[in-house]
Amino acid sequence: MKIRLLLFLCLAACGEQAFSQLDKEAAVHFLQRIVKDRAPAFVIEYIAPSKGKDVFEIESKKNKIILRGNNGTSIASALNYYLRDYCHCLITWDGINMNLPVLLPVVKEKIHKTTPYQYRYYLNYCTFNYSMAWWDWDRWQKEIDWMALNGINTPLALTGEEAIWQQVYRNLGFSDQELDQFFCGPAYFSWFWMGNLDAWGGPLPQHWMDTHKALQQKILAAERSMGMKPVLPAFSGHVPPSFIKKFPSAKVKKTNWGAGFADVYILDPSDPMFESIGKSFMEAQTKAFGTDHLYSADTFNENLPPTDDSTYLSGMSKKVFESMSAADPKAVWLMQGWMFHYNASFWKQTQIQALLNAVPDDHMIILDLYSESHPVWNRTHAYYGKPWIWNMLHNFGGNISLWGRMSQVANDPSAALHDANSGKMAGIGLTPEGIEQNPALYQLMLENVWQDKPVDLAPWLTQYALQRYGSFNADVNEAWKILEKTVYQGGLGEGGPESIIVSRPTTDVWADRVRTKLDYNPKDLLKAWSLFLNAAPELQNSDGFQYDLVDLTRQILANYATPLQQKWVLAYLQHDTVSFSKYSNAFTELMDDMDALLSTRKEFLLGKWIADARRCGEEEQEKDLYERNARDIITLWGDKDSELHEYANRQWAGLIKGFYKPRWQQFFVYLKAKMLNGSRMETTDFETSVKLWEWQWVNSHTEKYLTEPQNNAVETVKKLFDKYNTRMQEE
């Protein structure tokens, strides 16, 4: 009641007409969710944008904290600034510090911030599966609040789209049986939407389509209520396999993404049906979900066009856009620039220019998807005059390595903004394949939203630790200096280094699909480990500190697996059965210790991932389908012969002890038998048998894994430090 009264008084002062640009109800509810019973201490007011850019202000008046902004996201950003810089509080994916002081600090001089960026983009197609596949509304609400706090205003919004596809193709005469050969399972929508695969992990239950259509409507309403403009998909030509039988005269081409998946069928944009289907799709989507006139479409995601002829590419691009504009004359096409990096040998200057120039400049925005490592804007004349967005991709497959490129993230966005050759740089963004990892790196990237200068990294890290843990600590600040110089000075590889324990068993140090080469000396992390433990007596009650302590320990143990592996490999090669037993046992014991460590935090539980998947189902058969999807995507990815096995690996409690460890134990039994009978190891023999075991695990529903954390994180780390620190120092 008090909040509503304050809001009413503000309306009287500001004018109802101006304030109507804010969703008043959404702003109030947001404030209540974040600061809870302290909400009456804040007053929300409207101010106009600055030259079309979002703006916020903060000041103190009459014992109240005034938060001003031109929309809900600006108001949320003002609150976040106050919480971080004045109250030393911080909300991240992996740790929340909201211990507000009894007396809220006074803002002595008014704070005024204007963002230099029209667009602050968020999400990657892959994020919707590697991280978000099983999210319910409560989890989405938290993410939307996090977006708003961090100034994100252009989120990709793909949830529930399969219901729109179903409606469009049913109207074209396709039966549900035919569409069962089209729709994939819920862990694979990203690659279905991008035209890479059909049907894998299905058939998709109607219950999923209905519930997730409703979920998308709630997501979009919440995002828009905070002033965000969600990006919805447009038609890019993906049609059911039976399309060629139903419409034999249509121009349909087969394409194959590879990785063992069957051909996918793409309707050629030059075919008259392309525009009509695209228009129908957009109309159905707008009726169900509304529109902010921003649309994502990628016709050639990790697939090559049939020709590099510039006339064809230009015509194709023009037709795709016309299918959007036929339904929405205000349509703006957001195109991922990933293909220009991924298939760089095909997409040369002539081909890129032909694709882009076919669309008016004010109706297309390019996402420079991997700017922190492999920018494309600087070799395409800033996309030949198109507006474009600088993005940090960082994560591949949802892997959880401590890793990143902090220096580039702190300096490169502002450097590009002020570069005379950056053309129409219109925004910055986050495009990770998986989230809920490396929170410091993402917080650093978001520091760029409200400033046009580089981030001074050293003081920023000290301030970050204070906000995250709630108090200043010299030991932990020293530890963060070490982390910045080691794990966060990553190279140009696609994602961080992983651990040999997650690979399919091998005697090689370089495993298939698992990157094990470190960009730093692993012993350098031991000092940081010791410093974190020194800080534990003071900071152990901090949620963020506990997460970081566990994550750092996980990384140190994961790194140690490689020298252990090399010891039992050497013993095997020397036919030293005693040493082989000693070091292979130490290797599996390390996995047990990692599993016990990770079971202390909810973020690292396989059981929670599976339970969330099963919760989406209505009947037991549907729950089993979702569990199979959940198990498969993070292990084999596809069938038992999948080329993508381990791509989306996780170091999680339950997965280590229930999947990785038994797999290695089978390998050790195999090797020991070879040592005893003197025969030669044949990798193909072992792989044949282990693939069958892996596939059985993926399809199993009998094992139960922890869904809630157990044991004390700090005490567990102390025991592991005492056990491993000295032996690691001696390696």
Q: Could you please describe the fold and organization of this structure?
A:
There is one protein chain. By secondary structure, the protein is α/β, with parallel strands linked by helices. It folds into three domains: 2-114, 2-Layer Sandwich (Chitobiase, domain 2); 119-455, Glycosidases (TIM Barrel); 477-730, Up-down Bundle (Four Helix Bundle (Hemerythrin (Met), subunit A)), CATH 1.20.120. Helix content is 48%, strand content 10%. The protein is built from 28 helices and 17 strands. The strands form four sheets. Strands 8-7-17-16-15-14-13-9 form an eight-stranded parallel sheet. Helix 22 runs antiparallel to helix 23 (577-598). The longest helix has 31 residues, at 543-573. The protein starts with a helix and ends with a helix. Mean pLDDT is 95; it is low at 1-17.
Descriptive labels:
TIM Barrel, 731 residues, alpha/beta, Chitobiase, domain 2, Four Helix Bundle (Hemerythrin (Met), subunit A)
